[in-house]
Every structure is written in structure tokens, then in C-alpha cells.
Design brief:
Length: 323
Amino acid sequence: MPLPQSALAPDTAPSPAAPALSYRRTVDRRDVHRWAVSEVFLTDYADLSADHYVAAAQLPPAHYYFGDHTGPAAHSPDSMLLLECCRQAATCVAHRGLGVSRDSAFHVTEWTLDLTDTPLPPQDTPRELTITAVVTRTQVRSARLRAAQYALELSSGGAILGRCDISARYSPAEEADVVRRFHRKSVPPLSGSLPAVPAGTPVPPALVARRDPANVALADARRVAGGVAAVVAVPSGHRTHFEHPQDHYTAMILMEAARQAALLAAGTGVRITGYHSAFARFAELDAPVRVAAVRRGPDEVAVRFRQNGTVVSEIAVGVTEAF
């Protein structure tokens, strides 16, 4: 269901005395885990008070991935773009506000986005986004932050667009590498090892509200009792998902796959109202990630990801009929 503005918890709202933010240039790409400056949307960051922060982002007027939409999403801020702006804001806060080192491994465990139904008029200039953040430090070990929760509020031109909550864990790179190899019993491959054209039969772009076949994230889709089933399929050269080498399917990739699975289950005439996600383990690149999507009532599609028979993620996608 769309999130009413009254549902935004006032007790977690940062101080209104926010500094003026700049939209003139991007932040350091390393602070948002990007290699290409063109994929950086965060333009400024500031501390408000203890564990209260504010950030600015400029939404690109055109983008080959985030702007590639048909249907109801074509004329409103893309839910995946808002998720990416929230990811960049939380990552920047972690590095610059909380002292998490740049060589740390990040692991998102829970991620939600609840959008309001606030209409935004079209405009000729790039839309500017303000993201206010309240951080709760949930685990500190040997004076080093190991886990945190972020409550983010998104607004544009004074209109509240929604609320995003992110829970993340942080590990020193060498520790994360040892743990990862122990659980895998092998070195994880990098995304460059994936085929340029994923195996299987790709979903037609129009069925997942895309124009460009390169932005389709699912293959071998079929109708099953109560919903749809498919396999995650992302080309190795995707300029956003694999803008730099990855050793797993990221949370953003699974969110996109969940969005597309929800549209297959509910139809492209619906509008996405949010995501409630839990990530139990890494989605590895060297084994099929299977997707099952079932519509649970008029306003939700439940999406589950399995790999080798084990659940790696569950994402509830909020939907509403668009008129």
C-alpha cells in the first residue's frame, strides 16, 4: 500500500535546521561504491547532529537503465532509482559519518522502501532529492562499527516521496574474504565470468515494463500454480549492475528481479508502492538463482529467491492498480 505522509515517524525525523545542500557536483565516487562518475547521483552530504545526517541527490533526466520504463513508472521517479539514491546516501554516511573504512565489506540484511502517493508535476530541469537520515548503531566491536540501521526520508521540492530503512553489516575486507571462502569452499568468481548473453530464454521487455532487452533481469519465465517462476539472468556487461566487478548478485539486482517478477505476476498496469526485503545469504554467481512470485492480495506480490534449494532472499513488492 502507498505510505501516507502521516506514517512517517516524527520521532525519527532529523532536526529541521539542515544546512543548504549543493547540487553542483557529485560526491567522491568511492564514498558510494561506484567506479563511473556517471553512476553517482549523490551531490552533497552533511552532519546535522549525533547520528543525524542529510544528503542531496540529483535524479538524472535520462538514464539507459533507471530511465528505461514503460507504463505507470514512466512518468514518476523510478522506485529503483530511489533505492539507489538511498543506497548511495547510506554508504556515504557509513564512510564519512560513521568511520567505516573504504575497504570494508558491506552486507545488506534488510531493506524496505515505502512510497507515498504524492503526485509530482513534470519539470524541465533535473529533479533534486533531499534525503534525511537517522542512524542507529546496532553493533560496535573493538571500537569499530560492525552493524547499523538507517531510517531515511526522501523528499523533493518539499513533497515527501517516501521512507527507506536499511540494515547493514560491515566487516574488514580480509575477514569477510576468509568467511566467504569458508562457506563456499572455493573462491567466488567475478561478474566478468558471466556470459555476455545470459543462458535461457529472456523475458520480453514489455512484460516487465522495460524497452531495452539488456535491462531484463529474468529468463525462462513460466506460469505456475498461484504465480510465476523464473531464473535471474543479468548480462555480464550491464553498465549499472556490474559497473564494477562483483562476486555475487547484489541486493539491487535482486530488487530489480523482484520488481520484474512482481510485474509478471500482477501485470504491467500496476504501480510499485514499495519493497520489504530480507537477505539471508549471498546470491552466488556460479549457480542458478530461482525466482518464485505469488500475488498475496490486491496490494502485494511475495517474491522468493532460492539457490541450491536454499532461500537467499525474500522480497514483498507493494503494488496498486494504476489509473
